[in-house]
Amino acid sequence: MMNRRACLEILKRHVTDEIVASTYSTASEWIDVHDRPLNYFSFGAMGLASSHGLGLALARPERKVVVLDGDGSLLMNLGTLVTIAAAAPKNLIHTVWHNGSYEANGGHPLPHGGVDFCGMARAAGITKVHRFDDIRNFEQRIGAILKEEGPVFVDMVIEQGPLGPRSYDEMYSPSRRRKLREALGA
């Protein structure tokens, strides 16, 4: 298993002008690691990071969109995999941060901890699928994966993160939304 924050630090070195869409636990760590105008945070939308990312990818085909989704969130919206495969956006990379729990809601375990997200993505019609459980392998390959034509699905097997109270207020501030709109308009 990998440490999410360490993986996000690696990802940060490769993110330039991509839109990064995330929610809940991964979002709270991503904002600490790489706070930037092109971060999109979905508020109160567990399960919808992938749908929001798909919408951004379709609306802005000239920009790569990287979704930082949680495994619990994806389970709440599995239909998104079929929708992503059908829409086939060439600029979408969907990562699922897979720790076997609903971390944002207190760390309750998923109903079935051995979910094969890569198998689900393939069965939905996504052909470019990757799985990482070794940080060295992730570090070596993530640069090339971010350059692949999408849709791309990446299963990130991580250890559970901190369960303490999180504040999401700053993520959803009006000034942050304004900065995102300005960056998208530039």
CATH superfamily: Thiamin diphosphate (ThDP)-binding fold, Pyr/PP domains
Would you list the SSEs in sequence order as H and E? HEHEHEHHEEEHEHEH
Our count of helices gives 8
What is the β-strand count? 8
Strand order of the largest sheet: 2-1-3-4-8-7
Domains, number: 1
At a glance:
The protein is of the alpha/beta class. It has helices at residues 4-12, 24-33, 49-59, 71-75, 79-87, 117-124, 135-147, 174-185; strands at 19-22, 39-41, 65-70, 92-98, 101-102, 108-109, 128-132, 152-157.
General description of the model:
By secondary structure, the chain is an alpha/beta fold. The chain has a single domain (4-34, 45-161, 170-185), classed as Rossmann fold, CATH 3.40.50. The protein contains eight helices and eight strands. It has helices at residues 4-12, 24-33, 49-59, 71-75, 79-87, 117-124, 135-147, 174-185, and strands spanning 19-22, 39-41, 65-70, 92-98, 101-102, 108-109, 128-132, 152-157. The strands form two sheets. The protein has a six-stranded parallel β-sheet, sandwiched between helices. The radius of gyration is 15 Å and the shape is globular. The model has no long low-confidence stretch (mean pLDDT 89).
List the helices and strands and how they pair.
Blueprint: H1 4-12, E1 19-22, H2 24-33, E2 39-41, H3 49-59, E3 65-70, H4 71-75, H5 79-87, E4 92-98, E5 101-102, E6 108-109, H6 117-124, E7 128-132, H7 135-147, E8 152-157, H8 174-185
Parallel strand pairs: 1-2, 1-3, 3-4, 4-8, 7-8
Antiparallel strand pairs: 5-6
Task: List its traits.
globular; 8 helices; alpha/beta; Rossmann fold; single chain; 186 residues
